[in-house]
TrEMBL record, chain A:
InterPro entries listed in its UniProt record: ANTAR, CheY-like_superfamily, Sig_transdc_resp-reg_antiterm, Sig_transdc_resp-reg_receiver, WH-like_DNA-bd_sf
Ranges for domain ANTAR: 124-185
Domain of life: Bacteria
Source organism of this protein record: Cobetia amphilecti
SMART domains, per database record: ANTAR
UniProt KW keywords: Phosphoprotein
UniProt keyword Protein transport, yes or no: no
Residue ranges of every copy of the Response regulatory domain listed in the record: 4-118
Keyword match Phosphoprotein: yes
Pfam family, one: ANTAR
PROSITE patterns named in the record: ANTAR, RESPONSE_REGULATORY
Protein name: ANTAR domain-containing protein
Lineage, opening ranks: Bacteria, Pseudomonadati, Pseudomonadota, Gammaproteobacteria, Oceanospirillales
PTM-bearing positions, type 4-aspartylphosphate: D54
Automatic annotation (TrEMBL), chain B:
Gene3D superfamilies, alphabetized: Periplasmic binding protein-like II
CDD domains the UniProt entry points to: PBP2_NrtA_CpmA_like
The entry's keywords: Cell inner membrane, Cell membrane, Membrane, Transport
Protein name, per record: CmpA/NrtA family ABC transporter substrate-binding protein
Domain of life of the source: Bacteria
Organism, scientific name: Cobetia amphilecti
One Pfam family it belongs to: NMT1_2
Record localization: Endomembrane system
Length: 191, 402
């Protein structure tokens, strides 16, 4: 399946050249738009694999928001920096975030530019997902431990019995253990 | 150890957005307040919050006008790449409004709803949304400005107070401030929450109607803050103090009677020449000594306070309120309460405010935290040099935050 790219740029000459370069490199260009279009709707409609956007456009905040919304939307973004900012380019590229800045577009480089952006974005996202899962598990384990301590204290149970009590209650109420723990802790805080 | 030597042209680049509450930076520059503190400041207007954040994180900027949540979310690694950012100063209280399109207001009016207060409008909107759903019509589209913005959480708070579930009953978007009015006109949006002058502009162009302001939702809540990279602040503590003092003086100037019109002129010329001057001026108006605060606030939903009411003190509890909103909507998942508290303590720095404010003889609150929604009438705040008069506070749904 061809890789689809959305171009958001107010400088029509530059974006036309970019579109040509992308097409001849084998990409599909979903659309070339300027900042006055309804970008949110366009991204939802076309589901591009990558977005190339002028770094100076206000519309960047719309793409950031889409990136926060769900798994379907975060897209690798390639920034077109209009002024020469070599430090910024290097920094942002090295940071491995979804933003990948280039100061000007060389047609021969377009293919690797888009591919590198997509690959580094995917790698970054995988790493972030891994981190999030680890963090969530840790947080969940901590609240179960704290709920256990509360049950031990309020019901005068041993550690083992408190854990069994939590498990049984969670099962009866069809909750995950950590969900029940969170509820218990919330209630304990109110008291 | 840094010594107390005067700075001599310490160079700084600061980022700001085309909004009325960028005024402290513009005023400090125009009045020469940065220079008086030995700072050589370059102001860099930014096209989007994302661009401002990237410039601060990559070191193009040393400091910036920031949304209250940005130091926290940048430090936690939720916004851009993880970069510790601290804030020792709040720049202003309030200044945002919610504007609905003319078509939507007409529809609410035709339905015969009570639209007499911001809360009533939210309830009317809830009823209207239910009717639309029954008729099989698409969800209304409302926008705020950036994922980690006060606007997003004020808008969600207002909707929820009216009985609307922002994750189910409406489509939430982000649109940069200068593009809001045009999207309202084209029908891409049905409403938005944004800072001044963009509400006044939509109203002046006849495209929308302002239905609620920041203070209607959270009276005298924190809005923008001065954010600087933590490593910069540690390496340049004197320059950081000088920067805070310059901005404190600018904020104090802005709240002295008769100065706002001049500030509006500078803002217009420097940062938003495309917005009519009268619109900038209108959105920046301040209460007159003769007027009642309640009355003024009702007629000026975008009212911005820069200095009065201990406005510049970085209340850790106010930033926590925004963080609590993120938790409420599931936007802080994976961050434990302990980690959140530790990061709040790291990012919000009342200690650094106190050092600067004491030197200027300005208000220095004794506590780092305060309760919200517990003062139905004007009250007195304990300050180091005596009591400070404070206005009534509270939330649109009568909630208390302690």
């Amino acid at each position: 399946m061809p890789v689809t790219v959305l171009i958001v740029d107010v400088r029509s000459e530059r974006s036309a050249a970019l579109e040509q370069a992308l097409l001849s490199a084998g990409f599909e260009v979903a659309l070339r738009v300027d900042e006055h279009e309804d970008l949110h709707a366009l991204v939802e409609q076309h589901q591009p694999d990558a977005v190339i956007i002028d770094a100076d456009l206000p519309s960047r905040d719309t793409l950031e928001h889409l990136g926060q919304l769900g798994r379907r939307y975060p897209k690798p973004m390639i920034m077109l920096a209009s002024e020469d900012a070599p430090d910024l380019v290097r920094e942002a590229a090295g940071a491995g975030v979804s933003a990948y800045v280039v100061d000007h577009v060389i047609p021969a480089m377009v293919r690797s530019m888009v591919e590198v952006a997509i690959t580094s974005f995917e790698a970054h996202r995988a790493l972030k997902g891994e981190l999030n899962r680890t963090q969530t598990t840790l947080v969940q384990r901590r609240s179960v431990d704290r709920a256990k301590a509360v049950v031990m204290e309020t019901r005068g149970l041993s550690e083992d019995a408190a854990y069994q009590y939590l498990r049984k209650t969670a099962m009866n109420r069809r909750l995950a253990l950590h969900e029940l723990a969170d509820e218990l802790l919330k209630a304990a805080r109110r008291r | 150890m840094p010594t107390d030597v005067p700075l001599n042209g310490h160079q700084l680049t600061l980022g700001l957005m085309p909004l009325n509450d960028a005024a402290p930076f513009v005023v400090a520059e125009q009045l020469g307040l940065f220079r008086e503190e030995g700072l050589a400041v370059t102001l860099k207007w930014q096209p989007s919050w994302a661009a401002l954040r990237d410039d601060l994180q990559t070191g193009v900027l040393q400091g910036a006008q920031m949304l209250a949540l940005m130091p926290l979310t940048s430090t936690l690694g939720l916004d851009g790449r993880a970069t510790p950012v601290i804030s020792a100063m709040t720049l202003n209280l309030g200044g945002n409004s919610i504007t609905l399109s003319r078509a939507l207001m007409a529809a609410l009016g035709e339905d015969g709803h009570d639209l007499s207060s911001p809360l009533q409008v939210a309830k009317a909107l809830a009823a209207h949304m239910r009717e639309r759903k029954q008729r099989g019509e698409p969800l209304l589209k409302l926008a705020s400005v950036h994922p980690f913005s006060s606007h997003r959480y004020l808008l969600r708070y207002w909707l929820a107070a009216g009985g609307i579930n922002p994750d189910r009953d409406v489509e939430m978007r982000a649109v940069a401030p200068p593009l809001m009015a045009a999207q309202l006109a084209s029908g891409a949006l049905d409403g938005f929450c944004v800072g001044e002058p963009w509400n006044s502009l939509a109203a002046a162009q006849g495209m929308g109607q302002v239905v609620a302001g920041s203070h209607d939702i959270w009276r005298f809540g924190q809005e923008k803050v001065l954010g600087v990279r933590e490593d910069w602040a540690e390496q340049h503590p004197l320059a950081h103090q000088a920067l805070i003092r310059a901005l404190l003086n600018a904020c104090a100037w802005l709240d002295r009677p008769g100065n706002r019109a001049r500030a509006a002129e500078w803002l217009h010329d420097e940062g938003m020449p495309e917005v009519p001057m009268s619109v900038v001026t209108r959105g920046l108006e301040d209460v007159d000594v003769e007027q009642s605060v309640d009355d003024f606030q009702q007629h000026n939903p975008g009212w911005t306070i820069f200095h009065r009411y201990a406005a510049n003190f970085p209340w850790r509890s106010q930033t926590r309120w925004y963080a609590a909103q993120m938790q409420r909507w599931g936007h802080l998942e994976g961050i434990s309460d302990n980690d959140l508290e530790a990061t709040l303590a790291r990012c919000v720095r009342p200690d650094l405010y106190r050092t600067a404010a004491r030197k200027l003889g300005m208000v220095v609150p004794v506590a780092d935290e305060r309760s919200e929604g517990t003062h139905p009438a004007p009250w007195w705040l304990s300050g180091e040099a005596g009591q400070v008069p404070m206005p009534a506070d509270g939330f649109i749904d009568g909630a208390v935050f302690e």
